[in-house]
Amino acid sequence: MIRKLLPVLIVLLSFSATTFSQSDPAPKFTYSGYVDAYYAYYTDSVGTGNFQKFPSISPRSNQFGLNTAQLTFQYDGEKVRGLATLHYGDISRCTWSSTFPYLMEAHAGVRICSKLWLDAGFFRTHVGAEGLLPKENYTSSVSVHTWHEPYFESGFRLNYAATEKLAISLYLLNGYNMYEDNNEKKSFGALITYAFTDKFSLGYSNYTGDDTPTQPDSVEEISHLRIHNSLFLNYQYHKLKIQIGGDYCMQQNSGIDQNTGASDSSSASMMSGVMSLKLQATKVVAAYIRGEYFNDPDGFMGGIIADKQNKYTGYNLTGVTIGAEYKPTENSYIRVEARQLQMDNNQEIFNANGEPSSSRLEVLFNLGISF
After folding, report:
1. Would 281 be classed as within a structural domain?
2. pTM
3. Sign (positive/negative) of CA torsion 17, 22, 25, 30?
4. Buried b vs exposed e over 226-254: b needs ≥16 C-beta within 10 Å?
5. Considering its fold, how many domains does the chain have in total?
6. Are strands 268-280 and 312-313 parallel, antiparallel or unpaired?
7. Has residue 178 got a pLDDT over 70?
8. Looking at the predicted structure, is the pLDDT value of residue 11 above 80?
9. CA distance 293 to 263
10. According to the model, what pLDDT value does residue 216 have?
């Protein structure tokens, strides 16, 4: 019962900050909304209405759909703050917590000193270069690189605005991409960003934790400590915007025997990367391109598959996305984009007209507005 009431309590705590208004000068309460609708087509045949592999944005083929309809309520005071975002649509259905599918984030914060805040509750991820929503990215879709990063987390956040250019956040979390903990261990994370100018910034984020589920007393518990590192860069040169991100993740006792698929005691690693370019041709029209890479040879992040040579491996893929954007207003967009994902030739994880395939083509049309 307590767990079911937790999101409600957090929301109430967020807005109870209004009771401090007498001693908290000039408090500010705001709300905002965002809607993104789509039509998508995929060459991978997964069945009418089913979600595609790597689902998050526009995940159903040959259908009109709603990625998200969301409302955010925010309170900002001198000493306290709070935020809650509710969302509904395909993003909440296919990527979010099954326990709290309609709660994107909800957290309350208290100022400890002039530049230091302590926040607690449910957060969106602190890891990675790309955002999770189409309005936050150059592209509508997210890369497979981003899809394997955490989307949400719960715990405490210590946020320190060291200077106008340097910001540091430290996290104490339940686990990797989870609101509810699955063992008695806690995880740690960090996010450090530095803005050299308003057009050039660098960032580093990480996650360290063991999310091995609690085992019965009769079963030996094997540690799977994960250390996930992410570097990212954002740069703008005149009308050209550039975004680059790279991840390297290691996990204990997660190797596999490629002949049998059995796990062993060796450590496994994953490498991935993304690079996006956006050219603002006119005030309202832009073109963009993105390249992506994901290599998880032991399958500890993406899962293990048997390839054409009957070897057991994890995903190894590359992808290219191209698209165009039209912005009727500053807070709206219309985008058309196409993406080709290419697996290793021996990894036929897609199905094109009843035939196994190592590649997938997708075409997305997205229309979004925020207010």
Report:
1. no
2. 0.89
3. positive
4. bebebbbebebeeeebebbbbbebebbbb
5. 1
6. unpaired
7. yes
8. no
9. 25
10. 80
Q: Write the pLDDT tens digit of every residue in 302-323.
A: 999 998 888 999 999 999 999 9
CA pair distance 53, 7, nearest whole angstrom: 30
| Sequence-distant contacts of 85-91: CB under 8 A, at least 24 apart | 89/36, 89/65, 90/51, 90/55, 90/58, 90/59, 90/60, 90/65, 90/66, 91/56, 91/57, 91/67, 91/132, 91/133
Q: How many residues does the chain have?
A: 371
Number of Cβ within a 10 Å radius of residue 175: 24
Which whole-number Å values give the CA distances from 85 to 6, 30, 74, 158, 260, in the listed order?
15, 12, 9, 20, 45
Q: Which stretch of DSSP H or E encloses residue 193?
A: strand 187-197
Any domain includes 320: no
Distances 234 to 28, 261, 325 between C-alpha atoms, Å: 30, 40, 19
CA distance 229 to 246: 8
Residue 193: inside a domain: yes
Residue-wise pLDDT tens digits, 179-189: 999 998 999 99
pLDDT score recorded for residue 54 = 95
Residue 146 resides in a domain: yes
The lowest-confidence range among 24-28, 104-108, 176-180, 326-330 is 24-28
> Which range of residues forms the domain containing residue 182?
2-18+27-211+222-230+327-337+347-370
219: number of Cβ within 10 Å: 8
Provide, rounded to the nearest whole percent, the portion of the chain with pLDDT above 70: 93
